[in-house]
Design a protein that fits this description.
Oligomer: single chain
Structural class: alpha/beta
Number of helices: 13
Order of helices and strands: HHHEHEHEHEHEEEEEHEEHHEEHHEH
Shape: globular
CATH class of the largest domain: Alpha Beta
C-alpha cells in the first residue's frame, strides 16, 4: 500500500469535518473560558439528549468516571464488586484504588461479555455491585443481569467505553442505549473511541436524577457551591476544548456507527468461511457499533498471523493478552491460572483488525486478501 494502514484513521475523520471542528475550537479560545466553559454544558446536554437519559455528567476520563460512579453509589472499602476477567484494566483498577475487592467472573466465549449464568454463584453478602462491560461495541445481556442484581439488591455500573451508541433490544421490543439501563453508566472519549475527542475525556449517564447530582458534586471536589464541600470528592473535569470537539462529533455518531458496521459486514462476508478464524458474533439483544473488529484464531496461530500481517504493512492489536486475574498487580486477590478458562483462552486467541469510519474499499480489500492468503 502507498500510505500506511491505520488501525484508526483519526486524521481523515478530522479533515472531513475540519471547518466545524476548527470553528468550535476557535470559539472556545475566543471566549477564554478554559475551565467549565459553556461548551461543557452544551455537550453535556447533547450527550443527555442523544442517549435519552435523565442525567449526564462529564469528567476528565473514563477511568475517573468508573471511580466517581462507585463513590456516588457509596461503595465502602472491603465491599465486593463483580467484574469480568476479560476486560481493560481500568475497570478493575478503580475497584482496587478505592479499597474494594474485585470478584472476577468468566465471560461468554462468542460475545466476550460477562457470563450472566455464573453471576449468582459469585454474589456474596459482601457484594455491592456488578460491572457489565459492553466490550468491543455491543451490550451485555442486561435484562438477565438487571434481574439478578435486583433480586440480590446490588448496583449495576455499565462500562460503556467501547459501546457508545449501541442499542439494547428488550424482549418486549423496546430499546435503550448502552449505559442507560443500570444504576449508572460510564464512558470514555479517548480519541479512538466511537465518540472520541482530541485527548482525554469521560462521562457518566443515569436515569436517577439524585444520583446524577451526587456524582456531579463528587466530580467537582465534593462541592455544590464553590468553597462549600459537602462530601469528599475529586477534581475531574472535561476540558472545554474537548467538549467543543465532542459537541460537533456527537452529531455524527450514528453516521460513524453505520460506517463501522459497513466495514464489519464486509469483513464478515469475506472471512466467515475461513477455517481457523471465527468472526465476531452478534448478540440478538444488541446492535454492534464495532469499536473493535475482534476475531478468534485457533490452533495457536494468532501470533503467527499477527506477524504475517505486520510484514505486509497491516497493523493488528490484541485486546487483551493477559486476563486481569493473572496480571501481576492483581495476583494478591488469590486467583490462579485455570480459574476462568474462557477468559484465559480468549487472551490466546483474539486479534483485532483495522476498523474505522474512513476505511477505503481498496485498503480493506488489501487487508482481507492478506488474511485469506495466510489461511490458504
Amino acid at each position: 500500500m502507498k500510505d500506511a494502514i491505520q488501525m484508526v484513521d483519526l486524521k481523515s475523520q478530522y479533515l472531513k469535518i475540519k471547518p466545524e471542528i476548527d470553528n468550535a475550537l476557535l470559539s472556545a479560545v475566543e471566549e477564554v473560558a478554559y475551565i467549565n466553559g459553556p461548551q461543557v454544558k452544551r455537550f453535556t446536554n447533547s450527550l443527555k439528549e442523544f442517549n435519552k437519559v435523565n442525567a449526564a455528567v462529564t469528567c476528565a476520563n473514563g477511568t475517573d468516571a468508573l471511580q466517581i460512579a462507585m463513590m456516588g453509589l457509596g461503595f465502602k472499602p472491603g465491599d465486593e464488586v463483580i467484574v469480568p476477567a476479560f476486560t481493560y484494566i481500568a475497570t478493575v483498577e478503580v475497584i482496587a484504588l478505592l479499597g474494594l475487592v474485585p470478584k472476577f467472573i468468566d465471560v461468554i466465549e462468542d460475545t466476550f461479555e460477562l457470563d450472566h449464568t455464573k453471576l449468582e454463584g459469585v454474589i456474596s453478602d459482601k457484594t455491592v455491585g456488578v460491572i457489565p462491560v459492553h466490550l468491543f461495541g455491543q451490550c451485555s445481556n442486561m435484562e438477565a443481569i438487571l434481574s439478578i442484581a435486583k433480586k440480590h439488591n446490588i448496583s449495576v455500573i455499565e462500562d460503556t467505553a467501547q459501546a457508545m451508541g449501541a442499542q439494547y433490544l428488550y424482549k418486549d421490543g423496546s430499546t435503550a442505549f448502552a449505559g442507560t439501563m443500570g444504576d449508572i453508566g460510564t464512558t470514555s472519549f479517548f480519541p479512538s473511541k466511537n465518540l472520541g475527542c482530541f485527548g482525554d475525556g469521560g462521562a457518566l449517564l443515569t436515569n436517577n436524577v439524585e444520583l446524577g447530582e451526587r456524582v456531579h458534586i463528587i466530580a467537582n471536589h465534593g462541592q455544590r457551591k464553590k468553597y462549600y464541600h459537602e462530601t469528599i470528592g475529586v477534581n475531574s473535569r472535561l476540558d472545554t476544548l474537548q467538549a467543543a470537539i465532542l459537541d460537533v462529533k456527537i452529531k455524527y455518531l450514528n453516521e460513524y456507527s453505520s460506517a463501522r458496521q459497513k466495514v464489519a459486514k464486509k469483513y464478515d462476508e469475506s472471512l466467515n468461511r475461513l477455517s481457523g478464524l471465527i468472526i465476531p458474533n452478534r448478540a440478538n439483544y444488541s446492535t454492534h457499533v464495532f469499536n473493535q473488529y475482534t476475531c478468534r484464531i485457533g490452533n495457536g496461530k494468532r501470533d503467527e498471523l499477527k506477524s504475517y500481517l505486520q510484514e505486509k504493512g497491516i497493523p493488528t492489536m490484541v485486546y487483551y493478552p493477559i486476563p486481569v486475574h493473572l496480571q501481576e498487580a492483581y495476583c494478591t486477590y488469590g486467583y490462579n491460572s485455570g480459574d476462568f478458562p474462557v477468559a484465559e483462552r480468549l487472551c490466546q486467541e483474539v486479534i483485532s483488525f483495522p476498523i474505522h469510519t474512513e476505511m477505503k474499499d481498496n485498503v480493506q480489500d488489501y487487508i482481507i486478501e492478506n488474511i485469506i492468503s495466510f489461511f490458504n
